[in-house]
Amino acid sequence: MERVSRGECEDRPERAEPLSDAEMEIIQHTWGHVYKNCEDVGVSVLIRFFVNFPSAKQYFSQFQDMQDPEEMERSSQLRQHARRVMNAINTVVENLQDPEKVSSVLALVGKAHAIKHKVEPIYFKILSGVMLSVLSEDFPEFFTAEVQLVWTKLMAAVYWHVTGAYTEVGWLQVSSSAV
């Protein structure tokens, strides 16, 4: 993957595009349906992520050698990580009216993944796309084209906050144009 010099990405916007009140309502409404099955949805997202982007498994010693989706589905470690991912998104969704809380939660996620786990930040963008695909397929009655656009905007904001934390800790950022 292509690397960019230390500091800000040239194509990193100055700030995340804010969500309108109506968009926040759409996200919270649709998330309510998703979160009822949060572990199963999270597992589906992670399995699709690892099957389609197997290089992402390098960060997970517990299941990096798993090839079979059914084996991944049975993995307690994968299920645990799926719950953590979904709970982090839930915290963001529950606190959309409190941008400082959202920012601090995502900064913690970003810093942990940058410093402790050393995950390339581009995987957050990839995971966002996988999550949107799974939600659209699993909840077609709620994830209409309009709703998908709103969720895309939210995921862009999540990515913006997470990569901001990477920049803050001096990570050599991966350009978002690398995908």
From TrEMBL:
A cellular-component GO term for this protein: nucleus
Listed SUPFAM superfamilies: Globin-like (SSF46458)
Organism per entry: Oryzias melastigma (Marine medaka)
Molecular functions (GO terms): heme binding; iron ion binding; nitrite reductase activity; oxygen binding; oxygen carrier activity; superoxide dismutase activity
Reactions that this protein is recorded to catalyse: Fe(III)-heme b-[protein] + nitric oxide + H2O = Fe(II)-heme b-[protein] + nitrite + 2 H(+); Fe(II)-heme b-[protein] + nitric oxide + O2 = Fe(III)-heme b-[protein] + nitrate; 2 superoxide + 2 H(+) = H2O2 + O2; H2O2 + AH2 = A + 2 H2O
Family to which this protein belongs: Belongs to the globin family.
Assigned EC number: 1.15.1.1
Top-rank lineage group of the source organism: Eukaryota
Keywords recorded for this protein, A-Z: Heme, Iron, Metal-binding, Oxygen transport, Transport
Residues covered by the Globin domain: 18-167
Protein name: superoxide dismutase
The protein's enzyme class: oxidoreductase
Pfam families tied to this protein: Globin
PANTHER family: CYTOGLOBIN (PTHR46783), CYTOGLOBIN-1-RELATED (PTHR46783:SF1)
